[in-house]
């Protein structure tokens, strides 16, 4: 699948996250000293500045925290991809991730609905999107 929309550019810190997505797995960081998962990828644990972050796999299931329906393109590259359904999902593991909803009609979206990951391979990167769990 080829896509003309801008794509993320992995950094040295975020590379393990993107490498795992390419394998259709989700790796996020965990801080043993804080006892919690952390996202977005970083070098130090938020709040404590501990340098004990390690990568752990999660299943990616979660709950829809918020969303919007964009019926007008947010920029020219999105003009053929309407409506856009940007969203924030709260993973069962704790952190929240910005994403896009797929395989759902705007009228069927509900805050609090259970969602599961969808791995979208685009060119040389895999994007993490979400669909309702009951689909």
Automatic annotation (TrEMBL):
PANTHER family, per the entry: BLR3430 PROTEIN
Protein name, UniProt field: Acyl dehydratase
Top-rank taxon, per record: Bacteria
Pfam families tied to this protein: OB_ChsH2_C
ChsH2 C-terminal OB-fold domain sequence ranges: 55-119
């Amino acid at each position: 699948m080829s896509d003309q929309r801008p794509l993320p550019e992995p950094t040295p810190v975020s590379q393990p996250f993107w490498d795992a997505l390419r394998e259709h797995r989700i790796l996020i960081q965990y801080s043993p000293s804080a006892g919690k998962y952390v996202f977005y990828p970083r070098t130090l644990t938020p709040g404590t500045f501990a340098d004990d972050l390690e990568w752990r796999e999660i299943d990616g299931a979660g709950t829809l925290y918020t969303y919007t329906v964009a019926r007008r393109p947010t920029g020219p590259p999105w003009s053929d991809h309407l409506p856009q359904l940007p969203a924030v999902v709260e993973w069962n593991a704790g952190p929240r991730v910005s994403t896009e909803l797929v395989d759902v009609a705007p009228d069927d979206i509900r805050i609090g609905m259970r969602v599961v990951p969808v791995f979208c391979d685009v060119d040389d990167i895999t994007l993490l999107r979400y669909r309702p769990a009951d689909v």
